[in-house]
User: What shape does this take?
Amino acid sequence: MKGRKKRFQWGYLLLAPALGFILFLEGSALFMMIAQSLGFLNYTGEDAFTFAHWQQLFSRNFFDNLMYSLKIALLASLICLAVVYPLCLSIQKMPGKKTWLSLWKIPLFIPALIACSLMGNIIAYNGALNTVLLALKVIDKPLSLRNDAWGVGALLTQVWKNIPFMLLILYSAIEAVRKDVLDAGRNLGAGRVRLFFEVTLPVTMPSALVATIMTFIKVFNDYTISKVMGPIYPSTLSNLMHKAAYTLNDWHSAACIGCLMVVTSIIFVKLYTWLSDQITRRLS
Amino acid sequence: MENSLTIKNVSKFYGSFQALDKINLAVPEGQFVTLLGPSGCGKTTLLRIIAGFLSCEEGEVYFGDRLMNDVPPEKRDTAMCFQSYALFPNKSVYENIRFGLRMHKVPKEQHKKLVEEAMEMVNLTGLGSRRPYELSGGQQQRVSLARCIVVRPRLLLFDEPLSNLDAKLREKVRVEIRQVQRQLGITAIYVTHDQAEALAISDRIVTMSAGRIVQNADPRTIYERPNSKYVADFIGTANIIPCSVESREGDRFVLKCAYGTLRAIDRDCTLQPGAQASLLIRPEDLFLAAPGSENAITGTTRTVVYMGNVLDMFVDVNGTSLRAGITKENVVTENAPVTFAVKPDRIRILEA
Ligand SMILES: Nc1ncnc2c1ncn2[C@@H]1O[C@H](COP(=O)(O)OP(=O)(O)O)[C@@H](O)[C@H]1O
Ligand SMILES: [Mg+2]
Assistant: This one.
C-alpha cells in the first residue's frame, strides 16, 4: 500500500513539463500583463494600483483599431470560407487531385513577410494586377491597394495566406461525406447545387466553423501583415499595442490592449464552441 | 404492355477493362426483375447506368420510348436503395423521407400525409423524429425504402439492399420490399448475388456472368431449366457431371455417365447421339429406390448431415461424388450402400 502510494506521488512529476510550460511561460506572461494593466511592474516609475490605464484605453483611437481588426478578421475568414468550399469541390473532381492539393498548401510554408512582398508586387501601383486591369480597360488609372485606407492589400494577403489552412481542414471534411449519400440525393431529384446546400454544407458545418474561427483569431491577432500591407491608420490591435509599448513607452496601456485581445479571442472561441455544439446537436 | 425500361446493346469500359458487354434487356411495367451474378460481374455497373450515375460508351437506355442516355440522374425519376442505406445523416427520418417530395416540388400541404403513408407502408410509424444513427439496420433500410416509394418513381432500384442485415431480418425485409412493390405496381430492378433471395423475390431473374447476360427467365425456369452449366451451378445446389448422348428419340435420351446409364426427357436439348454433354441432377430430385428400378444410381454414403428439413448427404458412386437431399423421415447411415433413383424428366442435359 505504502509503496504504491509513493509511486503515485512520483507520478506527478510526469506532469512537470506540461505544467511548467503553462505556469512559467503562459501563466507568467498572463500574470505580468494583468498586473501591468493595473499599474504594477512599472519599468519607469513607481508601482501603483490604478484603473487609469484602462480608463484612458477606451479612446477613439482604440475603437478605430478594434473595429479595423474585427473587420479584417471577419472578412478574411468569410472570404476564405467562400473560396475554399468551391475550391475543395473542384479539386475533388480534378485528375491528379493530390498534386493540386499540395500546390494549394504552399502558402502555408511561406512566412508572412514574404507573402506581403509577393502580394505587394502583385497589387503595386505598376504591378501585375493593375497592368492587367488597365490593359483590359476595366480601370483607367492604376488602383493603389497597398497601405490603402480601407485595407484591401492586407485583406488580400490574409486571404492568400489563410486559404491553405482552411483547405486542409475542409477538404478532408468534404471528402468524408459519403458518395452514396450524395448519389441517393441526386437520385431523388436534387441537382448538384441543391445537394450541396442540403447535405454537404450541413454535414461539413462543424469543420467549417472550426476553420473559420481559427482563421478569425489568427487574423484578428495579426501584426506583420497589417503593418506591411494595411492602412497607416487604423491598424490591428497588435500594432496599437506595439506602438504603445515601444514608441510611447507606455507598457501599461499595451498590457490593457493585450488583455482585451485575449478576452476577445476567448469570446470567439466560446462563441464557436457554442455554435458548433448547437449545430452538431442539430445535425447528428 | 409497354416496357418500362429497355436496354439496347449497352457496353461499359473502365479504361481498357470491359465491365459490360452488349447488354440487352427489356423490363415490362410493374415487373420485379433481379440482376443476379457473382461479385464483380457488372450488376452494380448496369444499375448505375440505369440510374444515370455512370454513362455507357455504347448502347442506349430507354425509359418507355424516351432515350435517357444524356439525362442526368436527378431528372430520371428513379429512386435507389443502397446496401449502405445512404440516409442523410443530418436529417431526421421524417425529413429523409420528405426529401424527394421537396425536390419534386410536391405541394407542401401534401407532404405530411404522403410521408406518413409511406412510413406506415414500411412499418416505421412513430419513428419520424429519430435520427438515422438511432435506428437498427433493418429500420434504416426501411427508411431508405420509404424515401424511395414516397415519390412514386418510375423505376425502383436496389443494390444489394439486404446484404448488411442478418439472415432472419433479410427474409423479413425482402418480403416487405416485394409487398410494397406489388401494392404500388412500381417497376423494380433489384441487384443481388444471393440466388435464394433472387428466387424468392423476382418475377424475372437476369443471370449475369463477366459482364454478360447468361439467362433471363422466371425463377422456376432458371432453377429447373437452366440454359448452361454456369446457371445450373450458380443457382441452388447441383450435381453436374460429364455424360455422352447414347441415343435419342424425340425428347427422350439415353445418357452414359459415371452414375451409369440414365434415361432423360429434355425438350430443350438439341444434342444428337455421340455428343459430349453435361447432365444436371438436383439433390432433391433423388429419392431412395430399390436396386434395379428405372434410373437407379447405387453407391456408398460418405457423409450424412441432418439439416432439420432434409438429410443432406454425399454419396460415392464409382468414384464420382453425388449429392442427395432426401426427406428427414428416412434413416440413412454413413458408409453404407444406398440406391437412389431419379425421374427422367428431372434430368437436364446441358452443353458440355
Ligand atoms: N470505377 C471503376 N474503375 C475500374 N473498374 C471498376 C470500377 N467499378 C467497377 N469496376 C470493375 O468492374 C467490374 C464490375 O463491377 P461491379 O459492377 O461493381 O460488379 P458487381 O456489382 O456485380 O459486384 C468489376 O470487375 C470491378 O472491379
Ligand atoms: Mg455490386
